[in-house]
Each structure stands twice: as C-alpha cells, then as structure tokens.
Amino acid sequence: MIDLKNTPVSSLSGVGPKTAEALSKTGINTLFDLLCHYPRTYEDRTPRYMIEDAPLDTKNAFVMRITTPPRIGYTPTGKRIVRFSARQREKSPTVHIAFFNQTYLANTFRQGQDWRFYGKLVKSGSGYFMFSPAFENIDSVTADNIPIYTPPAGLSSSKISKLIRQVLSSISPYDIEDTLPESVLCEAMLMPLGQALFEVHIPSSQSLLEMAKKRLIFNELFDFALASEKLRRREDTELAPPMKKVDMSPFFASFPYTFTNAQKRAVSEIDEDLTGKRKNHRVMRRLLQGDVGSGKTAVAAAAIYIALKNNFKAYLMAPTEILAVQHYDTLSKTFSSLGYDVALLTGSTSVKDRKALRERLISSSPLLVVGTHALFEEETVPESLALVITDEQHRFGVNQREKLLSKAEIKNSLVMSATPIPRTLAMFLYAGLDVSVLDELPPGRQEISTLLIPPSKKERMYSFIEKEIEAEHQAYIICPLVEESEEELLEKEFSGEKGASLSSATDMAKALETRFLPHRVALLHGKMKAIDKNEVMSAFAKGEVKVLVSTTVVEVGVNVPNATIMAIENADRFGLAQLHQLRGRIGRGKDKSWCIFITSTKSREALSRLDFMTKCSDGFKIAEFDLEERGPGDFFGSRQHGELSLPLASGMRDTKLLKTALDCAKKYLESNQIIREI
Predict the structure, then answer these.
(1) What is the DSSP string of 425-453?
(2) Are 367 and 494 contained in the same domain?
(3) pTM value?
(4) What is the rounded CA–CA span in Å between residue 24 and residue 227?
(5) Residue 517 sits in the same domain as residue 377
(6) Cα separation, 453 vs 125, whole angstroms
(7) Which of 124, 193, 283, 583 could bond to 595 as cystine, CB 3.0-4.6 Å?
(8) pLDDT per residue over 605-659, tens digit each?
(9) 75 phi and psi angles, rounded to 5 deg
(10) What is the C-alpha separation between 179 and 194, in angstroms, rounded?
C-alpha cells in the first residue's frame, strides 16, 4: 500500500524539479495533497447542438471534422495564430477555429480528422468562430463530464488531471485511510473518503459526484468546526479581571455627531464585557455586526478608549492595507484629541519604523496599533495587550485570529463584520461569540438612488457625473477587470467583433482622462504596489482626484464622504452582496448620492437581480434574495490570501451540513473528554 501522505509528488512520472517546485508553491508536496486539489468546476462536454441552433457566447461542445489544413498566419497587428476550418457535416456552417500564440498546434491537427471542440461559439459578419477551444481527438474521448482544476503557475489543468489519474490508477479507494471517526461517518451518513476522492476526480455518475462533494465539504466544515469549538472552549476558560469603569463623556464629545441608539447599546454591551461583573470574569468575545455605514468603527473606538484609559494596549487588524491606513487616519484623529498614540503596521512599514514600534510595544505606555496580517507576523510580544479587534473577520482564518490573540496578556476579542451573515453561518464562523447588532444608520446618511441603465445611456451618465464634479463632488467608476487579456483583444481583432465586452479599468481610465479634462482621473486596482494604492486613495480622499476608476479593491471600508456617484460597469458580473458593499462607498456625506448599474445583458435572471438591487438597500434582505435566486455559490466571493481554507464549502449553500458538522464536532470533543476522564 502506498503511503499517500508521505510519498512526494516528485515520485510521479512527469514531475521534475520545476513541476515539483510549482506544485509546492500551491501546497502540493505529497500524493495526498495532490488528491486534495479538487476540481474547481466540471465541464459538460456532451455535444447537444447543431452549429446553426447553438446559443452564442456560452461554452458548448461540437464534434467537427477539420476541412482545411492548419496554417500559421498573422493578425492585422502581427500576432501569430494557427487557423483552420471545420464543420459538423457536409452542408452545415463552417466554423473558423483559431489558436493564439500556440503555433506548435499546426502539427496536431490534420485535414479530415474528427475532433471534439469545447468553447464559446462567436458569430460575426464573416461567419462562426471559436477561439482557443479545448479539444480532444474523437477516438480518445473517455468522458463527457471533465474536471477542471485551478493549476499552479506554469502548469495546466490537463497536466494536474493527468497526475491525479496517475495516482488513482495505482491505488484503490480502500487504500485511502479515512480521516473521520466511524461515529461521525454514520451520524452524517457520509461516503468513505477513498470513494469520495475517486468520484470527485473521475465522476462515474452525477448522483455519486454529489455524494462525494458532500463528503469532502463535510470534511472541511468538520475540521473548521473542531478548530472553532476548541478555541471557544479554551476561551471559555480564559479569565480576566474587570477593567476599571471609565468616564465616556470625553470620548463621545470628541465626535461631531451623536451616536445612534444602536451604537449606544453596543457600547454599553462592550463596556459591560470589559468592566462589569461578567460570569466567571470571562474575557470579552463579541461580534459587532452592522450593515454598510452603520458606524461600527466608532463603536470599536469606544472599546479601544476603555482599554487605553486602563493603561492597556489594543490591536485592530484589517484585511487590506487600504482599509488599515484608513482606520489609522480616522482613529489617529480621534485619539490624538484624547491624548493617546496610534501606530500603523503593514507590509509597507519601513524597517526603521518597525524598530521604533517594537520599542513602543515593549513599553508600559498605552498604545493602539492598527495593521494588517503584519500584526500577527510581528514576533515582538507586546506589553499589556488587552484588546484585539478584527475587521471583516471572515477574511481571516480561525488560526490567524488565535495567533493574534496569543500575543495578548488579556484576550479580549471584538470581531467586526459588515457582511450580512445568516444565523447558522454566524454560529459557525463566530462560535461562542456574543452578538451586538447595529440596526440603525447614523443621522445624516443619505438614501442612495440606484439606477439601472444600458450602455447606450452612458454619455448622459457622464454628463451627469461632470455636473457633480463641477459641484465639487467626486465619483467612482468600477470595472470588473484590470485589463483585457491579450487573447480577448486578439479575438475581437481577428473576428472583427464590435459587440459589448467586459470593461477593463485600465482602458476606462485612459478614455476618461480625456473625457473629464481638466479634472484629474486616477486608476486603482489590486495589482498595484501598496504604496501606489495608498497614494491614489490619499489623493482621492483629499479631493485631488475627482474620478477614481477602480476594480473591487474599494469594496470594503473606503470612506470618502464627498463621493456622490458610483457607476458600475458590467454590473451583472458582480454578486449582489458585492454590489451592496460597493454601493456603500457613497452616501456617506450630507449630499444626495447615486449608484448606477450599467449592463448590456439580456438575461432575465440577471436583470431581475439588478432590478431588485435598485429597490432594496437592506444588506440582510439582499443576502437572502441572493441565496434564493442563485442557490449554490461562494458566500464571500473570491477568496484571497489569508481567508478561510474551504475550497469546496459554501457558507450560504451548506448551512444544513454546517449545522451537522457543528453538532458532530461538539459530540466528538465531549466523548473524547469523557474517555480521557475515565
């Protein structure tokens, strides 16, 4: 029997040093790691349509015979392509097939051969086209349901698939040791792990694939539930002497507005946690949840004020550097007026500033440190750290939260989230936390008018934006892409297609620089260096930039009260929760604000979802509607570095399975505790 967990991937045929290194960077070091690299999706390559009846711009499979010899040619701009023609039968329409930057394929295809091609069918004035489709010789087709993997850089999905099949061909499902106790398998009615891994990579039927996915999803949820439950139980034993009561009037007086009743209630609950006679003097473990713009940061500042007045230190960790810098700027103003220092620690913090911060961390003086992941990566153990706050906690893992809390002398924890979370999911992500909800918006927050328009009305929209700029306001324009890929540009060039395409932030910024002269237009996206992103956001916050063209990097936390317009290109490409977060960047000042969704989609479903967004501003209702309409999907959108390691699980879709995982984790820990005591 092969020891999958200790056999390196380098033992496989076709895995040399470079491939092994690429796999290792993705966390794939052993054969078991490779089997746990699940398909991100499956492509149904069953041929269903004749060319003339096939839906355009959606992926479909066609079995066609090559009718012309492949030849290497050039696009009008000099790019090399391999091109040939094919058709399903003698009198069916011809399809022109082109591969960009892959001239070696000229030796792969032969006139008269039958191939299965899978990709988007495009129709232009000169006929039908397919660009860089997936392909299989009809004699080598083994399945219609093809697993598609997210490969490490330099590798392909097909390469990963071949390596996985190589492993599976050398073992049986019974060779894979199960990771769950038999009692859990029975209670949750789960497929054995070995069978699940075989089925997820080589599905034998749709029903067995669903059972396999259920098993592997449960694995993720159970592991995370165990970690959460262990952390909760440990925190239940963490005791802390109450802090001294603090006169909060100077704190409230430092704000130019009056807190809402919801904010006052949350501050009172936090004050009771930190200074009251809690049960067994347990440390604070609280979730502060509120919709976009409900004033969570101000409430968190109250907790920080109590800690600082008691001569303790506090940490506030944000998921991005932009948000960390914004929190730093906001809280510096608040606490400098109250006589306290605030420090910033991010990946961009200089060596000199880090050294100075370390000296302040080991001093006995009260201090607030705002930062990113750099906070728990910093090795210095701070003196008298008694409060840890995490913003948008779902973007961090349980282990990261635990690592940050391990630095604290007194492990009081406050978690903030603007993401509407169903009750079961909240129980899972924030196991054992007390909950404070901000269900009011601060006075002065303007209702945002939301409009849905086709691209044909963009010129009128730009004229409106111009008037707002002349009135000393600012605008966001959001695009789904940083820039179009070379292949997308070549496809349009080769086919002569003039239709609508995804708007890229780079192209949009260039076009608007001329359109909005003499006003300054700037570009912001996630691929920029942190120092450049901060420079752009600073210029926008100061009003030096009037139009900010951006990707969704501004989704969370960015606060520019003078921005009154947000236009979102290709709005149908975004999830509703994401659109709600984006929309929350405006309406933060005293002036009327507008959010404009631009789409060329003809999909009734997509238009219905966007229309709902124009009528609803309640984040929880939007999340519920999104779940009902879309069904399965990743609740939090694309995961980034440092987020929950749940490749298959979906917080919204898997709530029932999640509840089972929580129950099983609790029973498992309780039974093991009983066994140890016996």
Answers:
(1) HHHHHTTT-EEEEE-SPPTTPPPEEEEEE
(2) no
(3) 0.62
(4) 25
(5) no
(6) 27
(7) 583
(8) 889 989 999 998 887 778 667 655 554 333 333 332 223 345 565 555 556 777 7
(9) -80, 170
(10) 10
Q: How many CA atoms lie within 13 A of 625 on its CB side?
A: 20
Residue 158 has pLDDT above 70, yes or no: yes
Asked if 480 contacts 503 with a C-beta cutoff of 8 angstroms, the reply is: yes
DSSP H helices, 517-654, are 530-541, 576-583, 604-615, 619-630
DSSP category for residue 387: E
Total count of residues recorded for the chain: 678
Please determine, for residue 386, whether its predicted confidence score (pLDDT) is greater than 80.
yes
Of 393, 440, 447, nearest to 421 by C-alpha is 393
Count Cβ neighbours within 10 Å for each residue of 549-581 and write b for 16 or more, e otherwise: bbbbbbbbbbbbbbbbbbbbbbbbbbbbbbbbb
Same domain, 592 and 496: yes
CA distance 420 to 418: 6
Instruction: Report strand pairing: 80-87 vs 59-66.
Output: antiparallel
Number of neighbouring beta carbons within 10 Å of residue 440: 17
Partners of 290 in the β-ladder:
438
CA distances from 265 to 21, 29, 262, 294 (A): 53, 50, 5, 13
Q: Are 404 and 288 in contact (CB under 8 A)?
A: no
Nearest to 144 by CA among 104, 115, 116: 116
Report the C-alpha gap between 230 and 226 in whole angstroms.
6
Say yes or no: 387 and 299 in one domain. yes
pLDDT at 426: 62
Q: Mean pLDDT in the chain?
A: 84
Which two tokens mark 232?
Answer: 């909760």
Please tell me the distance from the alpha carbon of residue 295 to that of residue 371, in angstroms, as a whole number. 20
CATH code of 83's domain? 2.40.50.140
181 burial via Cβ count (<10 Å: 0-12, 13-18, 19+): middle
Residue 164 falls inside a structural domain? no
Task: Write the pLDDT tens digit of every residue in 105-148.
Answer: 999 999 999 999 999 998 877 789 999 999 999 988 877 888 98
Q: Is the pLDDT of residue 597 over 70?
A: yes
Give the confidence band of 236 by pLDDT, cuts at 50, 70, 90.
low
pLDDT digits (tens, 9 = 90+) for 174-193: 999 898 888 899 888 999 99
The four Cα atoms 578, 582, 584, 589 give a dihedral, to 10 degrees, of 180
Same-domain check for residues 578 and 483: yes
Q: Are 124 and 16 in contact (CB under 8 A)?
A: no
Q: Which domain holds residue 480?
A: 448-616
Please name the residue that has the structure tokens 């498992």.
668
Q: How far apart are CA 481 and CA 269, in angstroms?
A: 42
Q: Is the peptide bond before 518 cis (omega within 30 degrees of 0)?
A: yes
**Is the domain of 121 the same as that of 251?**
no
Q: What is the number of other CB atoms lying within 10 angstroms of the CB of residue 171?
A: 17
d(C-alpha 244, C-alpha 236), whole Å: 22
